[in-house]
## 1
Amino acid sequence: MITLNQPIIQLPIKVKRPEIELLLCCTRTHIDSETAERIKTLLQQNIDWTFLIEKATYHGTIPLLYQSLNTTVKEAIPKTVLTQLQNRYHANASRNLFLSHELVKILKLFEANKIPAIPFKGLVLAASVYGNLAMRQFSDLDILVKQEDIVKAQKLLIAQKYQLEADYYGWQHTFVHSQKPEIVVDLHTELTPLSYFPFKLPDFETLWQRSRSLSLNGESIIDLSFDDLLIILAVQVARAVNEGRESLAQICDLAELLRIQQTSDWEELLHKVKSLELKRPFFISLLIVNTLLNTPLPDQLKQAIQQQIQIDPTILIYAVRMQKQLFTEVKTPRFIKLFFQHLMIDGPLSRMPVRVYLVWQFLSFTTRLVITNSNQADREVFPLPSGLSFLYYLIRPIRLVSRYITNSTYR
């Protein structure tokens, strides 16, 4: 059962500019009567259209902004503004259609060479969640393959005139087409790297077995199951904030998926979340879409979040921070971001009294940051192939001790 648009809890966040509230009201595919009235009220204020479009561009929500304004209050929008948004909407639609053909081509190539592949993120979300390729902005084509197939997949792309642009320590490989640089393909062997963002998501075999089919340009492709997609989108929302890539578009992805899926075994979903130790990022992200976009939640999810807040009120700290970061002009220091990332991880000590838990998390986080988190300096001093990247966990403490001894000697 889906509840009405009642936020689970009122977070202490105030939107200071009407443009931001207008953007939030428009970042959805369906505008209810209450939201439509709020949009009309906001437009009575002196809207800075340049600022609004800049924010929508940053958050990748130009198509949603255009559709909402065009279908709700078209006559109240300056003609030049509406024309600009319309042009960008159609340009995005044309680009996405072009990229969809390229994605199908690559997937057929992989299939012919017996490489199981799961496309995910931008383009697939446009088709499966939004039901319209024009409604989602994205920069590349993301494809998940098995670790043992990555070399074979790379060779196939290179044979198709793609060039390897970047290799992110073995878990993500970025390719750019040599003749069509607007086509960028990211080959993934992990949904999110455990060494950087330590959440254990379902492995490839599990995702493949639970996958479903999706029609794209008349072709059948593989798509993630609803449960897997919901969990992954929630984790991606949390991860994006920690990386300083706060994205309203990703929050809307999660909100739209919840909107279109009204029948599911929510108890089974919650069991999967618990078994993966993802309750904290999962509930935080659901709390965000519920309070920020007034997204209705099924009663089972709503009750689970309310119970979790009583047990673990630290998730409210994170949810408030996430909302503040969305539109702030002040960048949070990396140390603070990493601490909040660490705070989000479920563990056996997560039910400690809040103050004790925060102190414990800070101490364990600091240890992890200083001792075990390899960084670019480690890789520059000791360049290793991606297959040996695990050795950086041994190299880092040795390098830090050596640097400390050297500095002490020359004081």
## 2
Amino acid sequence: RIEQIAPPATLYDRPATKFVASFIGTMNLLQSRFVGRDGHRLRFTAGTLPLEAISETGQWPGEGEVRTIGVRPEDLLAAAEAAPGTAPARVNSIVFHGRTLRLHAELGQGMPVVIDAPRQAEGFQFSAGDVAHVSLRRGANCPMLPS
């Protein structure tokens, strides 16, 4: 069954379904609670992680409804220190991917999350077992996916 026909960049950036989202690259599928909107930008929280999603249809869920938000690993940032707009995540493992390091971590309530962080010449500040403070990259386009 065909789920979406579109150019590769559209399939990657704006998948129509969870299957398409995970078929083209890695995507975090985060169960998130709707907390408000600014125009077509929808605000959610995945545990304590603030997220923004896009509404392709101009429709949005009701206050408090839970939806799946797709977040690519490169759209998440990891910091050593807590700051407004971050959520703590326990780093389970780190995988070398050339120019990037892929962190496999867990947000509160056991929610798995994958983060692609740039590899730094002088080393990387996280090890397995550390707590990373995760935030959404400014300007990230995260699709709200059908349940």
